[in-house]
Amino acid sequence: MVDHIVIPVDGSEESKRAATRGLELASVVDATVDVLHVVEQKSLRLAKSADEQTRLRERGESILEEIEAIAADIGRPITTELTEGKPSVQIREFAAERDATVIVIGRQGVTGLGKRLLGGVTEQVLSRSEIPVLVVPHGDGATTPVTDYSRILIPTDGSENADAATQPAVTIARHCGATIDVLNVVDIQNAGGMFSAGGLETEFIERLEAVGSEAVDEVAGEIGETAPEVAVTTDVVRTSSLDGVAAGISEYVADRDVDLIIMGSHGRSNLGRHVLGSVTSALLRTVDVPILVVSRSA
């Protein structure tokens, strides 16, 4: 269920983009919205006077007012909150106190070397939050309004954690009229080892694909039982990329014009290894569409 959304903002363009997508999502699913700005305690300590501290708090109020204007344009009422402390801690505690069902947060852009980074606050929230976190990038792939989402992707490895993505996907797909794609990626390099993958027997790869087919069929079956009106497609693809499963998912996203990825925070490979955590981390840094990360406890 997605019925109460918390949107932390810091005044950056990334957070404004995330706030816009979060407000659109709230409008689509009719969710309550709280918008939070945290004045960093460290900044307050470094302020040389009470006037400087006041200006920091006033800047926070100004940031919230900007989001109020965006919300008014979208037509979604919001509640705003200004607090002080360590941002990642305050965000998690605030979301828990408000019984939030989703946190929507921006992802930092790229460095001068072209390497994509997750913001420190975003990464800390992701690593410790039991509440699903929607990470919105600043790239062109995140410009599609939520109301226009037509294809949602659930990557699955068959684990319970990966399959925790199913219900949020159904909720959003129902309201947007979107198709859900359920995908399993067979990682040839991981299965055979970096130097022996070329020698894998066809029969062995086919067994891995059979396991993948069972995983996607199980998710598709659950969707069919709970939301028969939602269109579902399934696929099992191979990747021999050294970047592994994440590369296979990224290619699928680009080829199929996926608007949103919903996936578990970690899981296991076809060989029983716990790898979806690294896959999630890699995708958060490389794909330019929003990713909703869901833990099994959520």
UniProtKB/TrEMBL annotation:
InterPro entries: Rossmann-like_a/b/a_fold, Universal_stress_UspA, UspA. Residues 1-137, 149-294 form the UspA domain. Coiled coil: none annotated. Belongs to the universal stress protein A family. This is Universal stress protein. It comes from Natrinema halophilum.
